[in-house]
Each structure stands twice: as C-alpha cells, then as structure tokens.
Amino acid sequence: MFSTAIGPAKGFKAIHHHQSFGINGSSNPSIPTVIHIYGRKIASSKPNYHSAKITASAGSVGQDEAVTREDSKGAEDSRRLRRSADWKAAQTYQESGVIYEGKIEGSNGGGLLIRFRSLLGFLPFPLISPRHSQNEPQKSIQNIAKDLVGSSISVKVVQASEEGRKLIFSEKDVAWSKYAGEIKIGDIFEGKVSKVEDYGAFVDLLFPDGYYHVTGLVHVSEVSWDLVQDIRDILNAGDVVKVKVIEIKREKARLTLSIKQLEDDPLLESLDDIIPKEIEPESDTHSLSNNLNIEPLPGLESICKELLKEDGITEVKVGRRGLEKRVVSQDLELWLSNVPATDKQFILLARAGRQVQEVRMTSILDQDSIKQAVQRVLSRVS
C-alpha cells in the first residue's frame, strides 16, 4: 500500500490524505485528488502507477528489439550462405563452360548487368555478340544496351571470384562455341570492321544465316603487301571487307585473318620482270655465291654464313637483285617463297627498303624446318 503525504508548510496545518490501490491499478482507485489551500495547488495524490507501466513497457520494447536483432542476424546469415553457394555455382559454370541463360537487369557505360541467382554479374561491351548492332549499325552500343534491358541472354561465365567480388560474362564465347566449328583455315568470309587499333583491325564475320557471330583480328602486317605506316589510312570501323582465315586457336577462341593473302604476293608475280634472269654457273662447291658480280645486300652475307651452320642446309647462294615498286620493309627481312622447292632448292627473298634479292638454298629439310632454321639464324644475328 502507498500513502501520499504532504508535509507542513510554514504557517499552515499539516494535512494528510491517504489513498489505497494496487500496484497494477486493479483496485479501481478513485479519481486522483488534488489538494488546494487558499486556492493554491500544493500537491497531487495521483498515484505513480503510470511510471510502473512505463517501466514495464520499456522492458517490453527492449525484448522486442533483441528479438528483431536476432531475426535480422539470422536473415543476414541466411543471405550470406545463399550468396556463397551462388558463387560456387558460378565457378562451376566457369569451369564447365556450360551456357547460362540470364536476365539483363540494367546497363551502364561499360556493359550490361546480368542477374545470376542472388548475384549481379557484368557483361562488358567488348564481349557482347556483334549481331545486336547489325540491324541498326549507326546506333551506339550504349543505346543498344538500354534496349536489351529486361530481355534474356545466353552467356558463359569467364570469371567468378567471390573474394574479388567479380562475376564476368561473355556472349562472344557462346557464339564461338556454336559457330567456330564451321570455320576452317583457308576459308574466305565477308566481314565488317568493328574496331581499329594500332596493331590491327577487328573484323566481324558474316555467316550464311545473315548474322555476324564471330570476330577475328587482321594484324597490321596482314592488311597489305605494301608497307603500312598507319592502318587507319586503309581501314576504318564500318568498312566491309573480304578476309581469309589463316590461323585458328580454338582453345583460346582466337581467329587470325588476312586481307593481303587474298592476292598473290606481287613480288612473286613480277620477280622475273624486275630482276633479269641470269645464267646459273655450274659449281660443285658450297659457297655463298659463285657470281662475283652480284653483291649481297648489307647484312645479308653474315646471315648466309649462319645459314650454312644449320644442320641440313648444304649450300647458300645469293642470286638476282632488283628494286621493287613499293617499300615492304625498311629493315632487312627474309621471306620464304611460296614457290614449291624443286630438287631440294629453296628460295628466300631478302628485302630492305625497295631492294630485293634472291637467296637460294639447297637443303634436305622440309619447308617448316627451313622456316625454323631461318628464325634461329635471325635471332642470332639480330
């Protein structure tokens, strides 16, 4: 039981007022009494069961907050476990090479955002299939990407690193797996230049279904038989060209193309025109040249001496010399002629600036072995 007491004030008689009620207020207390003396409010007999209730309410809130925190922690743990499992799934996709069907959820300045379960991965613009821009070639890749948002896309996982938080997709890898089997060395395709770099041009190949699916590289050395100072003087993005497949690296999904090899080397076609034929002197000795009137190009004599040190090469002679109509290389280069060897006689062409000279070799080696021997010699004398 509580009692409310009001102590005596100076000049006044002490007045006591008692009121009984339960702590929980269940005793149905009367309306709280306010005591007045001469019109002034001295004190209130209002019980403080309200404060007891407030205290109980605060305790309840604390318990609720604790439960909420536990629930939140449990949910976060569940999300963490799910994300970890999804990272493992992404790594499995990468290792197996299986195609994944994902939804495009957005785009930014560099590519598309692809949903992979609870993860969000990235498809960079350079790894998007060229077929998307075929119908609207003038449209920017950024605007094409915006139009693709909300659609599904077939991709392969090319990088999945939970630690680095990197999930990278490629659509071009899907196209390669579908169409690379249709490509053979020596095939000729119509293509469109998609990008030009200092070292070469990337060309999208047109397939019989009317779409561009696979991209290859035309190295600057394969653009023209003439010396190319700046590839942009010859090729620009959007140009339609014919190309020849000269190398396929299937394990790396790389395709090497050539424009110049669609034509024969003009030097081989006109060699007899620019270099007068000579009567070959008979000789049964191994020498650099039996024609003392023909001087080798600067640096060529030392190369010829090194060639004679290679196993399987029995004779090296410098031959005809002349001037080309265009510069193929400023530095001295050796080219193995495509003319088939006869009687174990191979022809090399030494080129420097506009000068060209034949080098004839007698060897028991095959053409590939001759190439390797020449490469070893050039690495020694360079």
UniProtKB/TrEMBL annotation:
GO terms of molecular function: mRNA binding; transferase activity
SMART domains tied to this protein: S1
Gene Ontology BP terms: maturation of 5S rRNA
Domain S1 motif residue range list: 97-172, 186-260
Superkingdom of source: Eukaryota
Chain positions covered by the region annotation Disordered: 55-80
InterPro entries according to UniProt: NA-bd_OB-fold, Ribosomal_protein_S1, S1_domain
Pfam entry (one): S1
A GO cellular-component term linked to this record: chloroplast
Keywords: Transferase
Alphabetized PANTHER family for the sequence: OS03G0844900 PROTEIN
Record-given protein name: Polyribonucleotide nucleotidyltransferase
Species assigned in the record: Zostera marina
